[in-house]
Amino acid sequence: MSVSPDIYPHVLVVDDDRRLRELLGSFLTANQCRVSAVDGAAEARRRMAGVEFDLIVLDVMMPGESGVEFARSLRASGNQVPILMLSALSDTEDRISGLTAGVDDYLAKPFEPRELLLRVQAILKRKAAVQPGQTQPNEVKFGPFTFNLARGELRRDGELVHLTTRERDILRVLASRPGMPVDRAEIIEPTQEESNRAVDVQINRLRRKIEEQPAMPVYLQTVRGQGYSLHIDP
């Protein structure tokens, strides 16, 4: 029995490069996504006025309104549609600008289509885990710590705690579903052949930064047979 395309996630590709729009459209369509493609922020707004999208794949460098400006305006208006940002700019500051604007993930050009698909799938999976009527928090607090999901910043009593890129990504996944078990498969880096053991090592390193006694964690707990969960303040 065939599956109706209407149940496939609807992705909006926003990029001024026609060739890339066509390539992304063909690839995502071949991998069970419905795709609409536009060349800039203005047209994206017109499309979004009449259609609810499951994900936006958004280029940074576009004529007129940039991808960062567009993402920031969406978040300011309360629109929480997941955003995967694409950019030929790979500097840390450019990545931080995108994440600060509220995007969910960032992928530097050039990229492998398979990597993009894995990141799209991971974002959609996290979105599906959020219950109807429930919104993803912008910030969570646990003990003396505060973690801002958009900026990927962890602070202890107001002081910034250094996180590696991998630690930040793991904490963002856990903080997006506080108190809920997150399977190791969702924590594995999409672009690497990372093992469950490697994830455990990363978790232990993160615990050493947020737990008074890492061997007896209070916040970042192991859920037997399911993965890990982050326990935050009520």
The strand order across the widest sheet is 2-1-3-4-5
Number of helices: 8
Structural class: alpha/beta
The CATH architecture assignment of the largest domain turns out to be 3-Layer(aba) Sandwich
Biggest β-sheet description: 5 strands, parallel
**Share of residues in strands:** 15-25%
- Name the helix and strand elements from N-terminus to C-terminus, one letter apiece: EHEHEHEHEHEEEEHHHEE
Overall spatial form: globular
CATH class of the largest domain: Alpha Beta
Low confidence ranges: none
Count of the separate structural domains:
2
Q: Estimate the helix proportion, in percent.
A: 25-40%
Question: How would you characterize this protein structure?
Answer:
The chain has two domains: 5-129, Response regulator (Rossmann fold, 3-Layer(aba) Sandwich); 139-230, Orthogonal Bundle (Arc Repressor Mutant, subunit A), CATH 1.10.10. The protein has helices at residues 18-30, 41-50, 67-76, 92-100, 113-129, 165-175, 184-187, 196-210, and strands at residues 10-14, 34-38, 55-59, 83-87, 105-108, 139-142, 145-148, 153-156, 159-161, 220-223, 227-230. The chain has 234 residues and is of the alpha/beta class. The termini are far apart. The strands form three sheets. A five-stranded parallel beta sheet has the order 2-1-3-4-5, with helices on both faces. A four-stranded antiparallel beta sheet has the order 6-7-8-9, covered by helices on one side.
